[in-house]
Structures are given as structure tokens and as C-alpha cells.
Design goal:
Elements lengths: L4 H9 L9 H13 L5 H15 L3 H19 L8 H4 L7 H17 L7 H19 L11 H23 L6 H8 L7 H15 L1 H9 L4 H13 L1 H20 L3 H6 L17 H17 L3 H17 L1 H7 L2 H24 L6 H11 L1 H8 L3 H11 L21 H16 L3 H8 L4 E3 H7 L4 H18 L11 E6 L2 E6 L6 H22 L1
Antiparallel strand pairs: 1-3, 2-3
Helix pairs in contact: 3-4, 6-7, 8-13, 10-13, 11-12, 13-15, 15-16, 15-18, 16-18, 18-19, 18-21, 20-21, 21-22, 24-25
Length: 532
């Protein structure tokens, strides 16, 4: 008999045995052991329970196997080694084609994440073919397929699909250590992990689920029944709906990796990230990824205020939910979230340096702690190398949409997309090199002659006017078009030869400061009491 998750959890913690006392079932068990002698008994037991849960569409049990038992077995038996190949378990699962596709999705993902040597070229190809099988099964059906998976797994499928495309794009550009046979295989396989194939999958999932139409209707105030009607049979399916939604986030990420920031933000037109009940909040990794790429796109488009609002919002949320995130996620995912959080603190530091505004005090302290006071001071002085360090650490791993010229010699080109984006960013920083110094002088006065400021800066008045116009232009293009939560530290206008500086200094929120200190004091008292 199939046991409850509680009993089964204890079973997985002990010997993973499958003997039931029923002679017929035990004979079947022995037959399966003979089919797969290289697969440990614990793994055999787990895979059969996992298959049973998927076939019966028991979401609770599927989630338990996916989130808990798979990770537990991985830590115990496959921490740095690959799981058994699909060919070894076919007999165990009665050649169940759908289960084998899902198993291979987990199998190859584990190789990318945990196996020290990483995937070889053949495994990269096979993983691509397996994704093709999975998405063809989902997309070619005339009616919704009888499959439901937990939201976390659906997100991980889309996230991993894009990651493996990203990894392959960089792999094929590293030519120096490739054999002639590998190069010939790559040349003869231009459609493997092709950017058009990846885009086609994501757009097909969006179209199949009619998720954009549903979101648009929902944003216009349509009732739930109307939204479901618009979605049709596929849009009403939780799996198709969530895959469509996560594919929009996937398109945001993919366009960002390709350097098309305008299109990255355009695909998000129907998703309002400010809504606390947003679908993405059901999967923390999805929410963090979304804010990261939206904020980065704003930064590269010089919409610094929008970027600051985006990063501030998600970093504050992470601070508040840190404990629950650690309890709900595996150590591997916790490490990934931690790294992306550090990246966003560096991006926030870049934004508030180029566009000085006051941010939440606790967030500011954490930002300085993560980026370092010395680097922050160098950025404020206009040190290009400090900006380069922060950007190189915090930016995504950009990819080229086209394959390299395989006949050009064994040259590594995987860093070219990143170097190009870095060059574009540093050109913008260089254009603003004088602006922090000009701002620092303007904050000291309420009115000031143009000629006097030009003398301070050892510039000609006409050169200073050009820099002042540059400051106005940069700050104007940096502001949000949808209202602002922040205000510039300094603003000004020029009347004849006189600069008039507006007093925009924001008073410190003393009440918030004292409340924060009281809460810190209470935490300290509790900690001291616990030590007694």
C-alpha cells in the first residue's frame, strides 16, 4: 500500500525498503532490482513513489518528493555525482515516457549545478533535446495535458531552460580548449540552443496560456469569471497559466541578457510588481529574479529613480523575510539568493551615486556593509575603476545571440558581450564625471554666479554651462515617469548669469529612527535574557 507522507518521510530517513509482505509485490520488487542492479534500493523506492504521485496527480506528494526527498537523497548520495542515467531506471518505471522526461529534466539540472566537472557537450545536447520533448508534449496538445506540477517546479523549469541556454552560449564561445571534433559538431548543429528556439518556446507558452490577455483584463477590473473565459481551456489550467506567467519573466531575463532593455521592460507591461499579492510572490526566487532584471534594465536605460525604487523595494522585502526564505529553500537556493542580493546592493550603490537621493537608513547601512565604504567613497569621487568593479560583479552574464566564427581560430569570445555592456556603462559614467563635484558646490549655496563656480572648477563659463546642461539632462532622464518616492538632493535653474539653487533637502525622519533603535534595543534585551 502507498503510505502517507509522514510515514514515507520516516521511511526515506531509514532504509528506503520496498518489501510489503505481499509475495506478489515482493516478486515484482525483486524483478525490478534485477533490471536495475546499478541503482541503489533507496533511489529505486523513491523513483517509484515519485512516479506514482505524478501519475495520480497528487500535488502535495509531488511537492514533497520534489522539494524534500529529492534534495535529501541528493545530499546523502549524489552531492557531487550525477544521479543514475535515465536508461538505468526505465524498467523501474515501466518505460513511462512522461516521467522519464521529467526525471531527465532533474537529472541534467543536477549535473549543471552540482557535478564538479559540469556537463560535457553531449549532455548539453541531450538536455536540449529533453526540453524539446517536454515543451512539445505541453504545446502540441489540442487540449490541456493531464499534468499539474507545483509552482516551484514550473518556475525552475523555465529558469533552468534559460540558464542552460546562457551556459551553452558561453560554452560555444570558449574555443581554446575544444577539440576539432567538438568544433565540427557545433558547426553542424546550429539549431541546438539557438536563441530563436528559446524565444519561440517562451512566446508559445505565453500565447498558449493567453496570460497577457488574462492579466490585461484583470488590470482593467474584470471579474474572475471574465478572466477565466478570456483564458480559454488552456488559460484555465493552472499549469499552463503559471508556465505562461513564468515565461514572461523568462523573456524579461533573456532580453536583458541580450542587452535589449527596452524590450525586456516591454514584455512586463501587464505585470504590476508593486502589487503585494502578485503571482510571483508565491515563488521567492521568481520574485527576486524579476526585481533584479527590472532594476538592472532601468539602470542601463538611465532611469535611476525607477531602479532605486525597484531595488529598495525587493531588498527591504528580503530583509523582512530572510528567516522564512532560509526555512523554505534548500542551501543551494539560499546561496543563489544571497549572491543575487549582494549584486543588487552593488547596483543600488551605483544608482544612488549617479542619482543621489536619500534611501531608507537601514538599507543604506546594509548597502555600505555589502559594497564596502572604500569602494563607495571611490565611486562618489568619480573613480571609474570602482564603478567597473561594482558593475562587473553585479551585472548578469550577458550572451551573444549568434554563434562565433568557428573558422577564426581558437579564440575565447565568451566575455565579449559583457565587455561591450561594460563599455556602454562606463561611457555614461565618464559623461557624468564632473557632475558629483558640481553638485557638491551647488549644495553649499542658494544663489551663485556662473563665473564664480567656473573659477572654483577651473573651467571656462561656457564649459560650465555645458556641464550644467548635462547635469539637468541626466537628472531629467533619470526620473520616474509614474511619480516618485525620492527627491533629488539638489535642483537649480539659471537666470542670466546667476545659478539659483532650490532647497530640496529632505528632513531626517526622527520618529522612524527612534522606533528602529527601540526595536534594536528590545532585540538586544531578548538576546541577553536568552543567554542567562
Amino acid at each position: 500500500m502507498y503510505q502517507s507522507s509522514t510515514t514515507e518521510g520516516a521511511k526515506y530517513g531509514e532504509d528506503f525498503g520496498l518489501h510489503t509482505g505481499d509475495p506478489q509485490q515482493d516478486l515484482e520488487y525483486e524483478r525490478q532490482r534485477q533490471i536495475s542492479p546499478l541503482v541503489p534500493e533507496a533511489v529505486q523506492s523513491f523513483l517509484q513513489y515519485f512516479q506514482k504521485a505524478i501519475n495520480e496527480q497528487d500535488i502535495f506528494e509531488i511537492e514533497n518528493h520534489y522539494e524534500n526527498n529529492w534534495n535529501r537523497l541528493t545530499e546523502r548520495m549524489f552531492r557531487t555525482e550525477a544521479w543514475p542515467e535515465a536508461e538505468l531506471i526505465e524498467g523501474l518505471v515501466n518505460h513511462d515516457s512522461l516521467f522519464l522526461i521529467l526525471y531527465k529534466e532533474l537529472y541534467y539540472r543536477h549535473i549543471y549545478a552540482r557535478v564538479q566537472s559540469g556537463p560535457d557537450q553531449e549532455q548539453r545536447f541531450k538536455s536540449y533535446y529533453n526540453y524539446c520533448d517536454l515543451f512539445n508534449y505541453i504545446l502540441s496538445a489540442e487540449t490541456p495535458v493531464p499534468l499539474q506540477l507545483p509552482n516551484q517546479w514550473l518556475w525552475d523549469i523555465i529558469d533552468e531552460f534559460i540558464y542552460q541556454y546562457q551556459s551553452f552560449s558561453q560554452y560555444r564561445s570558449k574555443m581554446s580548449k575544444k577539440s576539432e571534433e567538438d568544433i565540427e559538431t557545433l558547426k553542424s548543429s546550429p539549431k541546438i540552443w539557438n536563441v530563436h528556439s528559446v524565444l519561440n518556446v517562451l512566446h508559445s507558452l505565453v500565447d498558449k496560456s493567453r496570460i497577457n490577455e488574462q492579466l490585461e483584463a484583470y488590470n482593467d477590473g474584470a471579474d474572475q469569471e471574465k478572466v477565466i473565459q478570456i483564458g480559454g481551456s488552456f488559460g484555465a489550467s493552472p499549469m499552463y497559466k503559471m508556465l505562461g506567467y513564468f515565461s514572461i519573466i523568462g523573456l524579461l531575463r533573456l532580453h536583458s541578457l541580450l542587452g535589449d532593455y527596452h524590450q525586456a521592460l516591454a514584455v512586463m507591461r501587464n505585470i504590476d510588481i508593486s502589487k503585494k499579492s502578485s503571482v510571483m510572490s508565491r515563488v521567492p526566487e521568481c520574485q527576486i529574479t524579476t526585481y533584479y532584471y527590472i532594476g538592472f534594465s532601468y539602470l542601463m536605460m538611465r532611469r535611476y529613480e525607477d531602479a532605486i525604487n525597484t531595488f529598495s523595494s525587493i531588498l527591504t522585502h528580503i530583509q523582512r523575510t530572510k528567516n522564512s526564505l532560509q526555512q523554505r529553500s534548500s542551501q543551494f537556493k539560499i546561496d543563489m539568493i544571497s549572491k543575487q542580493t549582494d549584486q543588487m546592493y552593488n547596483l543600488l550603490a551605483i544608482c544612488v551615486t549617479l542619482y543621489p537621493v536619500r534611501i531608507d537608513e537601514s538599507l543604506s547601512r546594509q548597502m555600505i556593509e555589502k559594497t564596502g565604504e572604500e569602494k563607495r567613497a571611490r565611486m562618489q569621487r568619480g573613480d571609474k575603476s570602482a564603478f567597473e568593479e561594482a558593475f562587473s560583479f553585479a551585472c548578469p552574464k550577458f550572451v551573444s545571440p549568434v554563434a562565433p566564427n568557428y573558422d577564426a581560430g581558437l579564440v575565447n569570445l565568451h566575455k565579449e558581450p559583457m565587455n561591450h555592456q561594460l563599455l556602454v556603462f562606463l561611457e555614461e559614467v565618464e559623461q557624468q564625471a564632473m557632475l558629483p563635484t558640481i553638485r557638491s558646490y551647488l549644495k553649499l549655496y542658494s544663489t551663485m554666479p556662473v563665473e564664480k563656480l567656473a573659477d572654483f572648477l577651473d573651467m571656462q563659463p561656457h564649459e560650465l554651462r555645458a556641464e550644467l546642461m548635462c547635469l539637468k539632462h541626466k537628472m531629467k532622464n533619470s526620473q520616474s515617469s509614474s511619480g516618485s518616492d525620492h527627491q533629488l538632493e539638489v535642483d537649480f535653474y539659471i537666470d542670466d548669469d546667476m545659478i539659483h539653487i532650490a532647497d530640496t533637502k529632505i528632513e531626517r525622519g526622527y520618529a522612524d529612527y527612534f522606533i528602529e533603535q527601540i526595536l534594536n534595543f528590545e532585540k538586544l534585551c531578548k538576546h541577553i535574557s536568552a543567554l542567562r
